[in-house]
Amino acid sequence: MTRRSAPSANEDPLDAEWKRSFRRRLLAWYAKHARDLPWRRSRDPYRVWVSEVMLQQTQVETVRPYFERFMAAFPNVAALAEADEQAVLRLWEGLGYYRRARSLHAAAKQVVADHAGQIPGDVATLLTLAGVGRYTAGAIVSIAYDRPAPILEANTIRLLTRLIAYNGEPTSTAGQKRLWAVAEELLPAKGCSTFNQALMELGALVCTPAAPRCETCPAETLCRARAEGTVERLAPTTKKLKFTDAREAAVVVRKGAMVLLRQCGPDERWAGLWDFPRFAIDAEGPLFAKDELRDKVRGQTGVACDPGALITTIKHGVTRFRITLECYEATYKSGRLNGATKWVRPADLTELPLSATGRKLAKLLQFTTKERRNKG
DNA sequence: AATACGGGGAC
DNA sequence: GTCCCAGTATT
């Protein structure tokens, strides 16, 4: 185990002149290097809020097109509050973490009902909104309202950890506490909107996880880790997770031109989204799975079917699972649908919000068996 | 303090 | 393949 120097050295108040210098250099750098991002074109609190929620654990380039579409469909908080949740989820499809979309929609209703349609401008009130945590609240207060509120997220955790050469675990409770304090201490009295965005931008473009561009960093001579030569030896700012393999089956039950879909319940993964009947399977391979498929489709939908050929196998990762999804054909035999289940024409699947694998399978259904084979 | 929650980009 | 991403809520 490597001996680290005493953490107490990291707890010292930051030098006032050092802080001024850091702020000045950071802002000068940002003035030159800020990216043109759609959510930076105005400080409308609604736009900032939507962008911040979309950006939670999601990369900027991934969010960009989603943000544009979402704002076109729901240009203000009233429009979002009045929207149908299915429409909101459909626009969120592919972005992941669908609870964000449901929370955002619920919070929009909260804002209309409890705050006269005005997005709150203080952290404490923002924290009462669904899906708004300490980071997002701080981001809205600082970026949209240009008022002092610290932020701490992936980019700035890494940046600040290096800047002060934090020698504990940045992901620990103590580490987070310290880094939030640093974020607050660095915050200028004025210009918090630009400052916080600049902090994140520097983390995203220069103070990167791998191969940070220290030679071009405006804070190079102020950075304690750079001075110590520990930039790439500090404790990681993210936790790694181990994957578990899982085998699942999805079943395309056909009844004439229709296929069977079910809506995921509020307490399961993909809550609110639709998917083909889908479940974990124990049996090995198509020849042995039929009885199990029949039983589980019936249990999940109330419908009896006759399972047939394997259509395709889809591999994908979701949260901590590495899933191998076997997709089977089946024909309807009998039985009535239970609650959240319905028959849908394949062409109409475009209107439903589906999981990524559900969408992949839905797209395949547009083709004949022979065309699918040719696609490999 | 640990875990659940998605999907895709970058290497 | 692995790592990571403008986190939040729940247990």
TrEMBL record:
The gene is yfhQ. GO terms for biological process: base-excision repair; mismatch repair. Residues 54-205 form the HhH-GPD domain. The keyword Hydrolase applies. Keywords: 4Fe-4S, DNA damage, DNA repair, Glycosidase, Hydrolase, Iron, Iron-sulfur, Metal-binding. Transmembrane segments: none annotated. InterPro entries: A/G_AdeGlyc_MutY, DNA_glycosylase, Endonuclease-III-like_CS2, HhH-GPD_domain, HhH_base_excis_C, HhH_motif, MIG/MutY, MutY_C. Its EC number is 3.2.2.31. Its cofactor is [4Fe-4S] cluster. Adenine glycosylase active on G-A mispairs. MutY also corrects error-prone DNA synthesis past GO lesions which are due to the oxidatively damaged form of guanine: 7,8-dihydro-8-oxoguanine (8-oxo-dGTP). Belongs to the Nth/MutY family. Pfam families: HHH, HhH-GPD, NUDIX_4. It catalyses: Hydrolyzes free adenine bases from 7,8-dihydro-8-oxoguanine:adenine mismatched double-stranded DNA, leaving an apurinic site. Binds 1 [4Fe-4S] cluster. It is an enzyme of class 3 (hydrolase). GO terms for molecular function: 4 iron, 4 sulfur cluster binding; 8-oxo-7,8-dihydroguanine DNA N-glycosylase activity; adenine/guanine mispair binding; metal ion binding; oxidized purine DNA binding; purine-specific mismatch base pair DNA N-glycosylase activity. This is Adenine DNA glycosylase. SMART domains: ENDO3c (SM00478). SUPFAM superfamilies: DNA-glycosylase, Nudix. The keyword Cell membrane does not apply. It comes from the Bacteria.
